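INPUT
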Amino acid sequence: QKEVEQNSGPLSVPEGAIASLNCTYSDRVSQSFFWYRQYSGKSPELIMSIYSNGDKEDGRFTAQLNKASQYVSLLIRDSQPSDSATYLCAVTTLADYKLSFGAGTTVTVRA
Amino acid sequence: NAGVTQTPKFQVLKTGQSMTLQCAQDMNHNSMYWYRQDPGMGLRLIYYSASEGTTDKGEVPNGYNVSRLNKREFSLRLESAAPSQTSVYFCASSDPGTGGAQYFGPGTRLTVT
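OUTPUT
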């Protein structure tokens, strides 16, 4: 059983601040890493994918991957109230077509 | 493209009733999945189909059956619903071309009384 652990939250940040979300995984052969955003009552929506060590930026979102430390993070810069949601970390080895999900971190951005 | 669609959006069943949740994707993806999401439990995989013609059990398959009708459609059946199956059900699809990323449908909110 692959394990994916996320910081438990909830995380409350003021508008305009940086929200930092962390995720660790147990399976060393994991190859692909994803962040999903889930608004209350809605389905998970893919917002970031990262496959190699380092940083990947997309707008206000930056994903960071460190395979040696088995760690992936998501930074949300200039946080907006619309970023208030639960963020799910997911990893896969690609060998069995399955994703392992963390329990999620709920972020609230205070206006 | 509609992406992944699910029907129905909401359903209320009595204990012992049966029903089928429908899922279809128009992205030509090979793999499809059924999850349930309960408060505090995260997303749990019920069944998946790596490709047309194959299905496999996930983490919580008991009480469910699936059918991969064709490449587009993957249905989930509850033969005799139980209150423990009250949950939100999500269908997802993926393909090697997506790098392992899965794309989710809008979900079905099921209540069993």
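end of record. Chain A touches chain B at residues 31-32, 34, 42-46, 49, 51, 88, 90, 92, 94, 96-99, 101-104 (CB under 8 Å).
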